[in-house]
Sequence to fold (446 residues):
Amino acid sequence: MDGRQSRFSITPSRGCKITLSIFSSVNHLRLADPMPSSTPRDSTESSDRSLPTIQWTEAGQDWAARWRSERGAPPPKRVVLADDTVTADVAYRFACEGTALLWRGDFNNATQLLQAMARRADKTPARKQRKSAKDAAPAALPADVFHQFRQAQSQRARILGSLLLPFNEDYGIALRRAPDARQACAEAWGPAQPDAGPSVASLRELLGMIGAHEWRKKGVEIPALGDPPNNRIHAHYGVFSPVRGEYVNLVASAPLPPTGQEKFTAFDIGTGTGVLAAVLARRGIEQVVATDQDARALACARENIERLGVGAQVQVVEADLFPPGRASLVVCNPPWLPARPGSPLEAAVYDEDSRMLLGFLRGLVAHLVLGGEGWLILSDIAEHLGLRSRADLLAAFERCGLKVVARMDARPRHPKASDASDPLHAARAAEMTSLWRLAAGMVSTS
Fold:
């Protein structure tokens, strides 16, 4: 797959084979009205209208398929049919130009091709290295580095997402040596619908779903939940996994406010996997109400709560931030970076305009009993990236009628914090995760 040959075959509408040097004959994919997939275009219309459709010409006939993209990418506008004879150089060039490759060869060869394309995407061209050395521009601001990093990651995702696979209506993959990934697909896409017809998605996305499926089976051990084996959280596809445990340990060790509430109640806002609600229940809190508005998160939290045996204490409800009523403790772990998510899967990391953070702060006082506390779990990486200042955060507390009772800090431990080659290394190395104990009143000046 890393060879230097630059010819492979595509099948234009005339059904003859030509080389890639004839660019005018490249097939085009286009957005269309919903219709059955991998069937002639004049077939009976499908009842599934939730997905966009892509069309292409193969062996002289027009075909259509459902387009699936969990990262929200639109259907590619151009496509070529590719098989085991395509080289990484050719595939990478087409992907950079915005042309997708619909794979018709061996599955394992497709994964090797994707790895080769990734190596090319991660390699800085020699001309850019020479230009950088010549310009020797002064160091960029952290915020500029962050935005450039996100832009590069988005471009990389677009390029590597250009290698496409066909899926049958039951999510089977009709390629040589293809794995049985039907369960992984069902966990991400929902149960297969017999009348939906086949579909097309990127190989990169499939590999992500398979990885998420394996992690879901294995689970993540959370020491704060007690001794194994009954201390694992199983994250569903699209739900942020608690692989960084420092914030969980903070919630497990912070002192509970002595409010005297007859039935000590806690709210877990944006529960995700339900890990913090489970930790609070294991601490002996009588009633925990965990909220979220994402269907995947709600299903994931309910499953974890039941598996851990704390269903009698924890109620998982759909809500935009707060449930009705007041609590002695309200916990919130919002996305830590105030930036726009580049895809639906990034919503657990990026909080555009700090909407969730500010929504929590604005509504907190109205949902606390006398003497109650709100625990805000927040990394300061946004401060190190120049996206938000500490003064801005403290000012938000004051505007919302909150004071800081105390703050507990923990240094995160993850591989990227020690990876000097990471463009965001300086911010990651300095990062601190904090649990802010907030209460009603004027903001602390200390």
Summary: Confidence is low (pLDDT under 50) at residues 1-48. Residues 221-440 form a domain with the Rossmann fold fold (CATH 3.40.50.150). The first helix runs from residue 88 to 96. Residues 267 and 330 are 5 Å apart (CA to CA).
